[in-house]
Amino acid sequence: MNAPREEFKYETHLHTKETSACAKNTARQMVRAYKEAGYQGIIVTDHFFNGNTTVPARLPWEERVRLFCLGYENAKEEGSILGLDVFFGWEYGYHHTDLLTYGLDKEFLLAHPDLLSLDLPTYVRLVRDNGGFITHAHPFREAFYILHQRFYPDLVDAVEVINGSHTNPEFDRKAAEYAAMHGLIPVSGTDAHSISPERFAGIKATRRLNSCLDFISLLRSREDYSLLGKPV
Question: CB atoms < 10 A from the CB of 163, how many?
């Protein structure tokens, strides 16, 4: 009789109080919550400087980057103690369109102090040229701060088709249809701003991931993972 295949749960969309102004829990608290919930790892995707960040705009670029990375670094430190894998990303805002950016690091940010001056195609090209990957987060969300829904199927690699923070299932259903229509990779994430295990989402992988680049490779395979969270 074959032994059951081991599976590993990963959160793909998570914010920390250190770096995202809308988050309620610290990085260490989030790590402990996901460890308790049986996750193998998380990707910290705090709001970038063009989103709801805690980082003051008046500071020099190097200091802004240092402060921006605090949430991830605190999570990484706590994860190393508890045995939870912690990877780095960010949520890049473009006129209320949110793009989860994976596969790059602190050194990339330090090397590109002009990042906020780039138009979207240039930003995407730069990310991809450096091995990064972009997911369009919650593309059909409706909220008071979203004046227009914008779609860039040629500029993203994946679509968040399950968002654990949504209470309206139509947002996720439309996102799944959009991803299928354009052949984009489907992804699930909680968009966690606080500890709410009943909303936890993400992906379930058939192998343990070693890095964010490993996560990207997994998504590109379209075979070795399944979606966690509410059904679409």
Answer: 24
